[in-house]
């Protein structure tokens, strides 16, 4: 039997093997594969970069190879296109810009350099032909041309909670100074769980987990920038069931590596700092952040109880006059701290770290030691209960004196709610009374948080909304948070996260807490997207099989 196949247009060596199966002799194989070396006596190669920026000059490097035994006079022709123009010095006279002629020695090579300037964005086609009396070759390829300037993205979400055949709209404008031709609009659709529509509240965040789940690295602060989102993503997955085993395993592997690396930044006294023993002191805030994340990570990472115990003991000792938390260390990556704006918010943050994971529970004003299944009794020392009592008294006293910062009040409200303080409802009600209502949704801002540098809400605004949701959940006032939950889910960027590590972590925690309360009935949804001229630009069908698939059209 003979099989005729065309030789692929590639200079390489191909191998072929065969086997036979018979009833009497079984399986038979060739002794060794047959090899076929494909070669050309004359060919060209075109060297191009991965991409260039519009306005830059690109030098087309055409390399000719002549393996014949004779010298060749070669004409190189570059196909002209409206997508680029030829560029030459004023002193260089060229009869035909797209044509070059040269001699190529036998068994030798030569190079032709032709500068061009792309005029359009996208994939620009490049076609080159080399012709001689003895042989010829032709290559067609593309080079990607990107817009000049710095890419920026803006996300606007529309939560479809509508009856059949109803519509909603999203309006936006491109910012001034946008580079002409660089504008791109992508329309995406994914199911999001609310009280009235079935789906998954964290669907957009799940679809963007490849950007949220990352390998931790760097100093003690940088390591946590990437470690923390892994924890809260998996915390959500555990409430909704495993969705992608490969992604879940990768996140757990990253967490294990991040945990091992973070241990190198724990000091002998149990605290954490950016560079461990090299720093003069541990950081109260970083130690609280690490403790908070490690407590949440225990279902997937075998965290040493001694690590948690020593960190909590050090935190308990960082006490200033009046019960406030003291900060003897420094934080290099201040953006990690979110909207933290003083000793009161730091004290509330430390209290949250100590109370959030059932190490200590407080009933009224009396601390009760409650070891969780993963926390041995030795971890729950009386000194932690004493620290909780003093911190709680300090925060309640500050609440009575008046709290001007909305951010501090939001964090204080959550800390009081976790502690079971009788003042927790009053603190939360005071914060809700300061809210700005936008389309019926309460939002908060803090003058100390600075101006937003984009269309998105400031990171501190996201944190405050998240702490309000967590407080409402803790105080069994979930119904009051439904509109805020929808607003928070709409503020995510195109990757499913938010503007910084701290607001992403707290927002994911709040959304996952609410998502765990929702059911997941079957749903079917057909969505048609039109532009201002009523032209259909995209159609999406969402059902139970693809409800977590982020469908996109550009």
Quickly list its features.
single chain, 554 residues, alpha+beta, Immunoglobulin-like, Glycosyltransferase, 4-stranded antiparallel sheet, 13 helices, Ig_E-set, serine protease inhibitor, Alpha-2-macroglobulin domain-containing protein, protease inhibitor
What does this protein structure show overall?
The chain has 554 residues and is of the alpha+beta class. It has two domains: 105 residues, Immunoglobulin-like (Sandwich), CATH 2.60.40.10; 316 residues, Glycosyltransferase (Alpha/alpha barrel), CATH 1.50.10. The strands form eight sheets. Strands 6-13-12-8-10 form a five-stranded mixed beta sheet, with no helix packed on it. A four-stranded antiparallel beta sheet has the order 5-7-11-9, with no helix packed on it. Helix 5 runs antiparallel to helix 6, helix 7 crosses helix 8 and helix 9 packs antiparallel against helix 10. The longest helix is centred in the middle third of the chain and has 21 residues. It is elongated and about 95 Å long. About 6% of the residues have low confidence. One of its GO terms (cellular component) is extracellular space.
